[in-house]
Amino acid sequence: MLGLGKKDTSLLLVVVALTMLAPFILNPFPSDSAMAQFNAGYPDLMQRFVIFGIFAIGFNILFGLTGYLSFGHAAFLGVGSYSAVWMFKLLSMNILPAIILSVIIAGLFSLIIGWVSLRRTGIYFSILTLAFAQMSFALAYSVLTPLTNGETGLQVNLDDPRVLGVSATADGSIPVTNLFGLEMRAAYDMAVGPWTFTFSAGYYVCALVMIAAFYLSIRIFRSPFGMMLRAIKSNQTRMNYTGLNPKPYTLAAFVISGMYAGLAGGLMASMDPLAGAERMQWTASGEVVLMTILGGVGTLIGPVLGAGLIKYFENIFSKINDTVLHSWFAFLPDGIEDFFVSIIHPFVGKGWHLTLGLMFMLVVTFLPGGLVEGGQRIAKAFRKKEDDKPKSPSTEPAE
Amino acid sequence: MGILEVKDVGKRFGGLQALGDVNLSVQENTCHAIIGPNGAGKSTLLNCLVGKLIPDTGSVMFDGNSVLGRSPHEINQMGISRVFQTPEIFGDLSVMENMMIPLFARRDGSYRLHAIESVSTEKELITRAEEMLEEVHMLDKRGMHSASMSRGDKRRLEMAMCLIQSPKLLLLDEPTAGMARADTNNTIDLLKKIKEERDITIAIIEHDMHVVFSLADRITVLAQGTPLVEDTPENIKGHPKVREAYLGETQQV
User: By a Cβ cutoff of 8 Å, what residues of chain B touch chain A?
Assistant: First the structure.
C-alpha cells in the first residue's frame, strides 16, 4: 500500500492509530482519581510529543542512516520557529505559509552549516555542528536582537502589519494562529463517565504532519538514497571505490534532517506563536540525540518512541512532589513512610533528570538498539513460548 | 598503446623515494602482474592509479584520459575497479544490498537523489545482482549480513561487486594474502574464469608466485621503486635480476 512493503504498511497503520487515538490512550485514568496526574492526554503535551517526534524522525535520517552525529540540530528548530513567527507578524496568522517558510529557511541554513561541517567526520563534525549551533544561539540571544527580540523572545504584537490578515481582532486582541480559519487552540472536551478526553485542533494538525513526516521517512529508508546513506555509515572507502561520491549524499541527508527540524520548529511556533533563543541551546540539541538513542538509532519508530518517553518524563515525572509521595506511602507506618519518601525523592520532581539518566545508562548498556530492541526481544520471547507450546505435549513422557 | 599507460611516475615520501621513473604499459584483455619484494613500491604504485595518491612526477593515462588529480570515485566511473588486500565491503548491509550499490553507481553516476522509490521496485537491477551472485556461488547467502561471512566469502563478494560494474580494468591488491591454500586455489579458479568469459583487463599485485604464474600473461618486477624487468612468466622465472632482487639478501648470508 502507498508504495510500502507489508511490514512498513502495518507499522505506518500502527502509528496512525496511536496518534489518532492518543487523546484516549494517554488519558487512561479518571480525571478525579489520584492517578490523574499521570494522564498525558492534554493538548499542550500531546502536541509536544508529536512535534518532538518529527524532530527526532528527521534527526534519525542523518544520525541513524549515515552515522554523522550532529550536536547542533536545535539551531534549525530555532530558525524554523523564528521564521514562522515572522510570517505571523508580517503575513497572516495562517500556519501554512509560516510552516512552509520555516522548512525553507531551515533547509537553507542547514545547507550552509552542513556544507562547512561535513568537511570533517566523526568527533570533529560533531564539534563543528555544536559550534555553529552555539553561534546561532549567541546571535539569536544578543547580536541579532532586531530580528529575534533577544532574550525576551519573538512574539506577535497588536501593531504587527499582517498584510493578508488583521493586526488585531474586532475586540482588540491579538488574532490566534489558524489553518484557513480553524483555530489551533480550538478544543472539544468529551466526558465519558469519570473520564475527560480532550480533542484539540492543534494536536490533530501536528499529528497529521507527523504521520506525513513518518511516511516520508519510511520511503527514504527504503529508497536507493537511504541505502547509500547506510553504505556511507558502513564503509566510505568502498563507497569511493565503487564510484560514488559520499559528500553530496551526506549533505542531502543533513539538509533533509535540517528541514525536518525546521518543520518541527514551525509547528511549535504555530501552536504557541513565540520563539526564544533557548530553543537553539546545546541542551536542546543534546535532547534530540538522547531521544534517538533511547528509542533506537536507525530504526523507523524508535525516535518517535524516544521523543514520547523523554517528553513524558519531563512533564509528568517532574510533577511528582513530596506530597504526592507521602500520599502513596500513607499506608506505611510513619517512620518507614518517611524513609521511602526520602529515598525516592531525589529521583522524581526536580530530580527527573536523574531517573532519565539512569534509564539512559541502562538502555545503552543492555539494549544498545534502544526501546525498539527491547520490544523485539519481548516479541521474540513470546514467539519462542508459542513455538514451544504445540511441541510440549509430544515431548512430555507418556505415562 | 595499452589501456593503462604509466609514464615516468615518481613519488617521494619525505626522504624516501617510494617510486622512481616507473614505466608500465598494460595491454587490453591481458592479465598483468606486478611483483616485487616488500617495500618495492607496489602498493604506492597502485594507489597512484586509483587516485588515492597523486604522483610527484610523470603521467598515468587510462583509456586515453589522464587519471591524475581525479578522485577515486571519478576514476571508478572511468572504468577502474579495485579489490583490496583486506576485503572492503559494506559490512552492515546484506549481501544483496552490497551488490545493488555498485549497480546503482553504474546506472546513476556518482550522485543521484533517488529518495522516494523503493529499492525493491528495481526489478532489472535485482535480476542482474542475482545472476552475478549465482556466478560466484553466493546466491544462497543473498540475505546474509555480510560482516558475518568468512573472509573467503567476503573476498568473493568484493570481487562480484567489482565485476558487476563491468570494469575495463580490474585492479587486484594481493587478492590471496592471508588465505588458506584451498581458498587461494578457489580464487585463482574464479579469476581464470573471469578472464576467459569477459573482455577484461586485470592488473594484479601479488606475493604468491603460484598465483602469479597461474594467471599472468605479463609480469613486471618492481624493486626499490623502479621496474627491474618486464617479460612473460616463462622468461621471468629464470631471470637472474629477479633472483637477485628476491634472493639477494640470502646470498649475502
Answer: 50, 71-74, 76-77, 81-82, 84, 88-93, 97, 100-102, 104-106, 108-120, 122, 161, 165
